[in-house]
Write a structure and sequence with these properties.
The chain is of the alpha+beta class and about 190 residues long. The chain has a domain of about 120 residues: TM1070-like (Hypothetical Protein Tm1070, Chain: A, Sandwich). Helices cover about 25% and strands about 35% of the residues. It contains three helices and ten strands. The strands form two sheets. Strands 1, 3, 4, 5, 7 and 10 form a six-stranded antiparallel beta sheet that branches. The radius of gyration is 24 Å and the shape is globular. The N and C termini lie far apart (about 85 Å).
Length: about 190
């Protein structure tokens, strides 16, 4: 191979590598600049006797941490903000909601009740940067529910929602959990 050609091949490879490195860096900076406020909601938690509620969250971002603000909403509608949680890239965490409810200050505990909903807030390019659920278990009854965290759908329209089934007998108890994530009053007409 002529000397000039031997020199051109490494220079060409170096130029290609530098271009790829610059483009990758540019896309990462652009993605970070596109972060915006995101909110996800969990429809139900309970700390009633016999129940255990756990908030589980995972940062889906491969390279960036997430600072997650968590607010509990009690059945009376009152919001109670918890200390933010820092999640490293791809990190998962679990938060024992029963322990949090049990350790509420006396000034709040009297109003809190034992059931509610929750909201998580974070900065990321999309809501899918964080995934999670609220797991509610009752070992005595042998039951467990997972309520996935979900984003608000701004395009959703009013529509009838129907439940699958319920057991209509004196040994079975049931509940319907609803959450209004808008700032407006919503009229509901449940029929059983």
């Amino acid at each position: 191979m002529p000397p000039l050609r031997r020199l051109c091949v490494p220079l060409l490879l170096l130029a290609i590598a530098a271009t790829l490195l610059i483009n990758t860096s540019h896309h990462r900076v652009a993605a970070q600049q596109e972060s915006q406020a995101q909110k996800l909601w969990g429809i139900f938690w309970t700390a009633e006797s016999g129940f255990t509620s756990t908030l589980e969250m995972k940062n889906n971002l491969a390279e960036d941490p997430l600072r997650v603000g968590i607010s509990l909403y009690f059945a009376n509608g009152e919001e109670y903000a918890l200390d933010p949680v820092q999640l490293g890239p791809r990190q998962t965490t679990s938060i024992d909601l029963n322990r949090i409810i049990a350790s509420l200050p006396n000034s709040v505990a009297g109003r809190a009740g034992k059931e509610g909903t929750l909201e998580v807030e974070f900065e990321a390019p999309t809501p899918s940067a964080l995934m999670g659920s609220v797991s509610v278990r009752n070992e005595e009854w042998g039951s467990a529910w997972n309520f996935f965290l979900y984003p608000r759908n701004a395009e959703a329209t009013a529509a009838a929602l129907r439940g699958v089934f319920w057991f209509n007998d004196k040994e079975t108890d049931g509940f319907v959990a609803l959450q209004n994530i808008s700032a407006e009053l919503i009229q509901l007409n449940p029929r059983f």
